[in-house]
């Protein structure tokens, strides 16, 4: 199986058995991602160089409005999709085999983890993996140390408070906090006062 064939299979609910041919391709992609992220993380790069490296990593043209403070980590890279005016702060970790879709205007805080893979529950099949995508809609703000789990969609304009673990979808324009994250209130406009 080629990397391109494998990538075309990366759809919701896709399962890769541990030790399979597909699992070996996963490792090939991981080695490629490690090489690119080592370059990204281990010396200074201009904004333009970061955009070029992220374009190489994802296999897609990253918009010139993109911003990032390395280091950044991923074990694939080829299933990350980034819109315009996105900023990713230092120390983020993306496990993107299941697909990570980041829309325009998203802000991602320090050390956020976006994970799109679960291992199989059955102990006899535990090495197997199932993929589910993460969707981060427009103008979402993920605080520092947020973890987003497989299959989650975070609705447009929402805020996820620092340290939250998001296990379920969050509706648009809501603030969610805690472990597991729960919606605590609506996002307020500048004309309103509110505490997180």
TrEMBL record:
PROSITE patterns: HEXAPEP_TRANSFERASES. Keywords: Repeat, Transferase. This is Sugar O-acetyltransferase. The keyword Cell inner membrane does not apply. The keyword Magnesium does not apply. It comes from Blautia wexlerae. InterPro entries: Hexapep, Hexapep_transf_CS, Hexapeptide_acetyltransf, Trimer_LpxA-like_sf. Belongs to the transferase hexapeptide repeat family. CDD domains: LbH_MAT_GAT. Pfam families: Hexapep. It comes from the Bacteria.
């Amino acid at each position: 199986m080629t990397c391109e064939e494998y990538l075309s299979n990366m759809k919701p609910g896709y399962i890769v058995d541990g030790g399979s041919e597909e699992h070996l391709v996963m490792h090939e992609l991981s080695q490629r991602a490690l090489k690119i992220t080592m370059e990204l993380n281990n010396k200074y790069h201009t904004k333009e160089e970061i955009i070029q490296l992220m374009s190489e990593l994802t296999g897609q043209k990253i918009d010139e409005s993109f911003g990032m403070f390395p280091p950044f980590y991923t074990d694939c890279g080829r299933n990350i999709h980034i819109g315009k005016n996105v900023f990713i702060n230092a120390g983020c970790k993306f496990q993107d085999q299941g697909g990570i879709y980041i829309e325009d205007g998203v802000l991602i805080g320090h050390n956020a983890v976006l994970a799109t893979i679960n291992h199989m529950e059955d102990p006899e099949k535990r090495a197997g993996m199932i993929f589910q995508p993460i969707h981060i809609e427009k103008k979402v703000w993920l605080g520092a140390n947020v973890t987003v789990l497989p299959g989650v969609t975070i609705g447009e304009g929402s805020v996820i408070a620092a340290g939250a673990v998001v296990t379920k979808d969050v509706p648009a324009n809501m603030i969610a906090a805690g472990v597991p994250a729960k919606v605590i209130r609506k996002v307020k406009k500048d004309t309103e006062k509110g505490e997180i």
